[in-house]
Specification:
alpha+beta; 5-stranded mixed β-sheet; 41 helices
Length: 1418
């Protein structure tokens, strides 16, 4: 404030400019700020007061000093009000006002703090103006000058301030930080935090309530008026103090109830200060009137000081209460929060997998053990000054890493935000869930800040479970943790057994992710990793400067082990009633020494000792301490003892090895009953009943393995090895060192494959359960299944293909015996096997097994005899049968015959073997071979629209009834329940390019968006069209959704905001029937009932060029070619027309075919396929639907076609297998360079100059499948293998390719020669493939190993090898060169050394009548 007494007085104009500027600042700030609703009236009152504030009187320079002081104080108050209003309008303060307003609406009827601010400012202004008015009146009375002229803003006379009623202040409230920013203080940080914050708040409070001093200026020097006014103020202050003390007492009860509560100490200090004020105010109230009158001025000053202290106390109480305000709000909104929380957590899947380990992983350290390492881990977690955020606990198997990890987790899960994930070997499908499982646990933690940050991130990315692991890590951890800048509690993420991640690369990727981001996270974020010291992990982690706890180098754990062993041995002694002297202290000490710090060793030893005779077992265990060096040696000791007990009985020894082998390689859980069934027919069990076999296995053969093997009391429950390290030992030839218990995985798979095939050959029969009716469902006859289907048979049916394929490596030929057994099973029992799979509800698994076996057979058949190739054909038939009829077969076993086999084509291998079992045989009307239909599914309503998901994993179907449903294209199974999408028929559906959204349009004039995974609707319907939606299409980048309607318009939408984009596209005279984006998104094509096609710019929302005219009927469908160079349009004029999208011109003549064409699907119930290059029909129409076809859609790979029809079905078609007969062999669009017949003359291969090969059926003259594509340069003449199963092609692209001559599929990767290839030829036995190069070399390939086994180099330089031919006996190879030279090579089968060179023999040596010096010149 300026001192008018000692400084030069500014001019009236200067002061008025300053006053006017301050008034305008206050008014603008008040008007342009969004105040809490309860404070708006108070803000308006303040604005009115400011507006009416006066300017400087015209006679100001000549007035008294008292008036100058009043005016100076008036200007100072304006400055103070301006500052306080601006501060209140700032973003943090506005957030505080909103929080306080919400809180006051729930907790108090007092005015809000924002309202009190405005009232205080208004009172200060009124007081200063009233003081200025009094001085002005006095000056007027003394000087008798002309009356004071009011400013243009109004009179100086304003309503007097009500000094006797100071503005009430808020008692409860929150500090400036938002709810999610209020710090929660713990431990030593409480004191460090409280001091500066309290001082800051007190300073702010004193500044805010400094205006209370104004009240003192209105107290006269003496008199009854002053004394009475002091009385009123004292009463008010006494009442306020009493109310504050009452509230503090209640708040203190809550604070003291929480140990170490941050507010408890300060609340007690405030209580003391307020009680002191209360005492002083009460003393004034009780004093006599004379004393009051005599000391009125002094008491007025004292009372105003008390008033300021009370206001400061109120302000600090607001801060203290704010520390707990988060919990209050959460409690009030818990129902809504819990519901939203559960929904978001569901997006992360089931976190229980990560938090729950197996029996060993869930074990915690025995009380009193592992104290030192656990203390170090605790200090690392608690101390934020330790900058290293990652701790790696390393140790060999059995060191107790998982136990330590579980102990840390259980100890911290209530004191920190804590999550754990246990990797498990063999469960690779669950490994990608690691980050979601951890985040799920954090989302359920007790820390509201961590929980809120994680859930907020999930809310922004609800599809995070489908993302890559790196994106999951950044979204679920990096982003949320970066927001916890003031977070004081630790957050702990534990990843246990990282070495058991199925793929080492994945484990290294996890390490790199953590390393990449950990340093940028808050210091309180901690990662705890455990793993075995496997070299790739050690190498990767060694590059990081992480903290390490190496259990191999840890201090002696003898004391911990001694505690553990003493207690456990005491339990055994009491359980077995053994004398108290057992075990001796020396025995325990020896056990501690033998454990070598391995807690798992000790735990396993205790289990071993507790079964059988503990004293005897302990003596055996202690007999040779030199043999024990770790967990392997313990396992080996147990295994050696078990095999030692059967050493004199080879049959029992072999049986024990077989049982352990079965447990080690079984692809599905295996029980004791199954083991008994698999091996129960051995000589040792002759005459023994199955229950006795089970008892023998449990009580005799396996009794010595009970410490390694868990055998349930119920023989039908799965057995399991105690730990994966047991299996690791037995399957490692190096670790077993030639011991009898070594498990050769390949041999045991092969042995079990033979057992399974034989068991199925003997057990499987037609009508396994002797059912009387074909309509009996598998789900209704489970009691019959239990009686008729042994668990051994079930195991064999589930596991045989895995044992067969894993027991016969692709590099080795299948043994003759197993090949014979597989052939017999395939030709005699395969349908009975499908019966069992139906009965046990495993048809989906059966389809997977069939597909896998067929692929394995294709890889194997290069080295197998010709009869083996029939197996490939037969299993291809089985695959078609089970895929086409999966639903009825899954429903009931006898449907295999009634609903499937009866419709099997009659010229298939499957019908040849099993046709006699078909209860219905069709004399006419059945196809001879499999047609293009893969499966047909009934959906219950006319199918109006079909769409294939971009990843090819789902088919969406829209029906006349308004429902949507998703199907699995592999099996035709519904993968979702029908959901009611629209109340009127669905007319069109479309997936977004990323497959996450599914859009549907209907006759209800709206479009809806759906989550393609959950089927849940997304947002509100898209509304804007006036009539039915006929077509929708996403842009290639997914940013736009276009819709065409019966209202003659096209609209563009933002699928994420559900808002219309731009203006409707108008140009068609009638309804828009079909729309399609070009592949690059630059064009949008539309077809209409006005018989035209139009092109649009979807970004500028304008038409491009003139309408494309040429159809005589309505255009019902339009589509771009994949390269965007053509537009195809289908019309009711029964034609398909091609257009150039750039010129708008029609290309050649339209395609004719259907009697009533709707694009490629017609009302004549057929589908036609066309070649867009030759514009000719491909093959015959696809027939199968009974009514008109409304919608068709190709799969993303173009090999399958799905169609929907008015016959209420969808059909999946194999477009490659359709018989495409033309009158001439027309399929190439470039000239043909060579042709070749198969050995049996039924196939013809033709090579085209466009680097493709086409296979033809010579009987029908039709092409077989699509052209074989793979070579990138000119293809040399091709060659069939002698058995006609393979086709070899060499190319100028320096590769040789092998093709399946029947399916046209490429077999394996290309054979890279490194040289341009000009010719190829098979040897008569099919074991060799010769290829000639452009540099006169000839390469010999082994067709089985696919390796080069020899290189033939002629004498001289003759250039390109133009032709190769083996002699009929395969001993000679003739080669022709481009210079006319012919070379003969002798005994090519002896060339087995790669990259060796052999000299050929001249042709004249075989033809003596020619002169020796002469070559054969052509």
């Amino acid at each position: 404030m300026s001192d008018l007494k000692n400084t030069r007085t500014p001019s009236n104009e200067t002061l008025n400019e300053k006053i006017q500027s301050l008034k305008e600042d206050i008014q603008l700030t008040t008007q342009n700020t969004e105040w809490p609703p309860g404070s708006v009236d108070a803000a308006e009152d303040l604005m009115k007061t400011v507006k009416s504030c006066p300017t400087v009187p015209s006679y100001f320079p000549s007035v008294s000093h008292e008036l100058k002081l009043a005016l100076d104080k008036y200007i100072h108050v304006l400055e103070d009000v301006s500052t306080r209003v601006k501060d209140a309008s700032s973003k943090p303060r506005k957030q505080q006002w909103k929080i306080l307003a919400r809180l006051k609406s729930m907790t108090s009827k007092h005015p809000s703090k924002c309202t009190l601010l405005f009232k205080t400012c208004q009172a200060d202004l009124l007081a200063s103006v009233n003081a200025l008015n009094e001085c002005t009146e006095k000056e007027r009375d003394k000087t008798h000058d002309e009356p004071y002229e009011a400013s243009s803003h109004g009179s100086l006379q304003l309503a007097p301030a009500n000094d006797s009623q100071p503005p009430e202040s808020i008692i409860m409230g929150t500090a400036a930080p938002a709810l999610n920013q209020v710090p929660k203080l713990h431990g030593a940080q409480q004191t460090a935090y409280r001091g500066p914050v309290r001082q800051e708040m007190l300073n702010a409070a004193r500044t805010t309530f400094k205006a209370l001093d104004v009240a003192s200026s209105s107290i006269p020097v003496a008199g009854n008026f002053t004394m009475d006014k002091n009385d009123d103020l004292a009463k008010d202050l006494g009442g306020q103090t009493a109310r504050l003390l009452e509230l503090l007492d209640k708040f203190n009860e809550r604070s003291n109830a929480i140990e170490g509560h941050v507010t408890a100490e300060r609340v007690q200090e405030l209580q003391g200060e307020l009680r002191d004020i209360q005492t002083k105010v009460t003393s004034w109230t009780l004093s006599g009137r004379f004393k009051k009158a005599f000391s009125a001025r002094e008491q007025a000053d004292a009372l105003m000081e008390h008033r300021a202290d009370i206001q400061t106390a109120q302000e600090e109480m607001q801060f203290l209460v704010s520390l707990d305000i988060h919990d209050m709000v959460v409690e009030l909104k818990s129902a809504e929060l819990q519901k939203e929380k559960r929904r978001l957590l569901k997006c992360l899947g089931d976190g229980k997998y990560g938090a729950q380990g197996n029996m060993l992983e869930d074990a915690v350290c025995f009380p009193g053990t592992r104290v030192a390492i656990l203390d170090r881990v605790d200090r690392w977690i608690k101390d934020p000054s330790i900058n290293n955020r990652v701790l790696w606990i390393s140790g060999m198997a059995g060191r107790g890493k998982s136990t330590i990890a579980s102990t840390v987790f259980h100890g911290w899960k209530t004191g920190a935000s804590c999550a754990i994930f246990h990797f498990r070997r063999g469960q690779s499908a669950l490994n990608p869930r690691v980050f979601c499982a951890l985040a799920r646990q954090l989302g359920e933690s007790l820390d509201p800040e961590v929980k809120g940050a994680v859930l907020e991130s999930v809310k922004r990315h609800e599809d995070i479970a489908d993302k890559r692991l790196e994106e999951q890590f950044e979204t679920l951890f990096v982003t949320p943790f970066s927001k916890l800048t003031n977070h004081s509690r630790p957050t702990l993420l534990i990843i246990d057994a990282l070495d058991e991640c199925n793929h080492t690369k994945d484990a290294i990727d996890f390490i790199n992710l953590i390393h990449r981001h950990s340093s940028s996270l808050h210091p309180n974020i901690r990662f705890l990793l455990t793993s075995r010291p496997e070299l790739p992990l050690v190498r990767t982690i060694g590059l990081r400067s992480w903290l390490t706890e190496d259990l191999e180098l840890a201090p002696d754990a003898s004391n911990d082990l001694d505690i553990f062993l003493q207690q456990k041995l005491l339990d055994i002694r009491q359980e077995h009633s053994i004398e108290e002297s057992w075990p001796s202290s020396e025995d325990i000490a020896r056990l501690v020494a033998m454990s070598q710090g391995l807690f798992q060793w000790a735990r396993t030893a205790i289990t071993y000792l507790g079964e059988g005779s503990p004293p005897a077992r302990l003596r055996m265990l202690l007999k040779d301490p030199g043999k024990w060096s770790g967990l392997d040696e313990l396992y080996q000791h147990i295994l050696q003892k078990a095999f030692h007990n059967v050493r004199l009985e080879p049959t029992r020894k072999e049986l024990l090895c077989s049982v352990l082998g079965a447990l080690s390689v079984s692809p599905v859980p295996i029980s004791l009953e199954v083991i008994a069934g698999l091996f129960g027919d051995q000589d040792i069990f002759e005459g023994v009943e199955p229950p006795d076999v089970i008892q023998f296995l449990r009580n005799d053969l396996l009794v010595d393995l009970s410490s390694l093997l868990f055998i349930p009391a119920v023989p039908t429950e799965p057995m399991q090895l105690m730990h994966t390290s047991v299996r690791d030992l037995m399957v490692s030839q190096t670790r077993c060192e030639g011991q009898i218990y070594y498990i050769d995985i390949t041999q045991h798979h092969r042995r079990l494959a033979t057992l399974c095939l034989r068991k199925m050959m003997s057990a499987l029969k037609h009508n396994m359960c002797d059912l009387r009716h074909a309509w009996q469902l598998s789900s209704d006859i489970q009691d019959i299944v239990e009686q008729n289907l042994s668990r051994t048979t079930r195991y064999c049916c589930l596991a045989w293909s895995a044992h067969l394929t894993k027991g016969n490596d692709t590099q080795d030929a299948i043994c003759t015996q197993q090949l014979t057994e597989l052939k017999s099973f395939t030709e005699e029992k395969v349908l009975f096997w499908l019966e069992v799979m139906s009965l046990i509800g495993a048809i989906s698994e059966a389809i997977r097994m069939v597909k896998g076996l067929r692929q394995w057979l294709l890889q194997q058949h290069l080295s197998q005899p010709p009869e083996f190739h029939l197996l490939v054909t037969l299993w291809s038939d089985v695959e078609r049968l089970v895929t086409m009829f999966a639903l009825p077969i899954a429903a009931g076993p006898l449907h295999i015959y009634t609903s499937a086999l009866s419709f099997c084509p009659k010229e298939t291998e499957l019908w040849r073997c099993y046709g006699a079992y078909a209860p219905v045989k069709y004399l006419k009307g059945m196809s001879r071979k499999w047609d293009s239909t893969l499966w047909t599914r009934y959906v219950g309503s006319s199918v109006q629209a079909v769409a294939w998901s971009p990843d090819g994993e789902g088919i969406a179907v829209g029906t006349f009834g308004g429902s949507l449903q998703l199907f699995d294209p592999q099996y035709g199974e519904a993968i979702s329940e029908p959901f009611d999408a629209h109340y009127r028929p669905v007319t069109t559906i479309c997936f977004s390019p990323d497959g996450k959204l599914l859009a549907s349009g209907s006759r209800s004039n709206i479009i809806r968006l759906w989550d393609s995974h959950s089927g849940e609707p997304i947002g509100e319907p898209l509304e804007g069209h006036d009539r039915s939606i006929n077509s929708i299409c996403f842009s290639p980048n997914g940013q736009f959704l276009a819709s065409g309607s019966h209202d003659n318009t096209i609209r563009l939408w933002d699928p994420y905001s559900a808002k219309a984009v731009g203006i409707p596209l108008k140009g068609h005279d009638r309804s828009v029937t079909s729309i399609c984006f070009s592949p690059d998104g630059k064009f949008l094509a539309s077809g209409s009932h006005d018989n035209t096609v139009r092109l649009w710019d979807p970004h500028a929302w304008v038409p491009i060029g003139r309408p494309l005219e040429g159809h005589d009927g309505s255009v019902n469908s339009v589509a771009f070619s994949p390269d965007g160079k053509l537009i195809a349009s289908g019309s009711r004029d029964m034609t398909i027309q091609f257009w150039d999208p750039h010129s708008g011109e029609a290309i050649d003549d339209p395609l004719y075919g259907h009697s009533q064409v709707l694009a490629s699907a017609s009302e004549d119930n057929t589908i036609r396929l066309w070649d867009t290059h030759s514009r000719s029909r491909i093959g015959q129409p696809l027939r199968g639907h009974n009514y008109r076809i409304i919608s068709v859609c190709f799969s993303p790979n173009g090999k399958s076609l799905v169609s929907g029809s008015d016959d209420d079905t969808i059909r999946l078609w194999d477009t490659d297998s359709e018989d495409r007969t033309n009158e001439s062999l027309m399929g190439h669009n470039h000239w043909i360079s060579s042709v070749c017949f198969s050995p049996n003359g039924k196939l013809l291969a033709s090579v085209s100059s466009n680097n493709t090969i086409q296979l033809w059926n010579t009987e029908s003259g039709s092409p077989i499948g699509q052209a074989l594509v793979g070579h990138s340069n000119w293809i040399a003449p091709v060659s069939f293998s002698p058995d006609g199963q393979l086709l070899a092609s060499g190319s100028y692209d320096r590769t040789v390719r092998l093709w399946d001559a029947h399916s046209g599929e490429a077999i394996g990767e290309p054979l890279n020669s490194g040289e341009i290839l000009s010719s190829v030829c098979f040897s008569p036995d099919g074991k060799l493939l010769a290829s000639g190069t452009d540099e006169d070399d000839i390469l010999l390939w082994d067709t089985h190993s696919r390796d080069v086994i020899g290189r033939l180099n002629p004498v001289g330089n003759h250039g390109e090898v133009t032709s190769l031919c083996f002699s009929p006996d395969g001993k000679l190879l003739a080669s022709g060169f481009i210079d006319g030279f012919i070379q003969i090579w002798d005994d090519c089968h002896r060339y087995t050394t790669p990259a060796s060179f052999y000299r050929g023999i001249e042709f004249y040596s075989l033809l003596p009548r020619l002169r020796a010096s002469r070559r054969l010149e052509l």
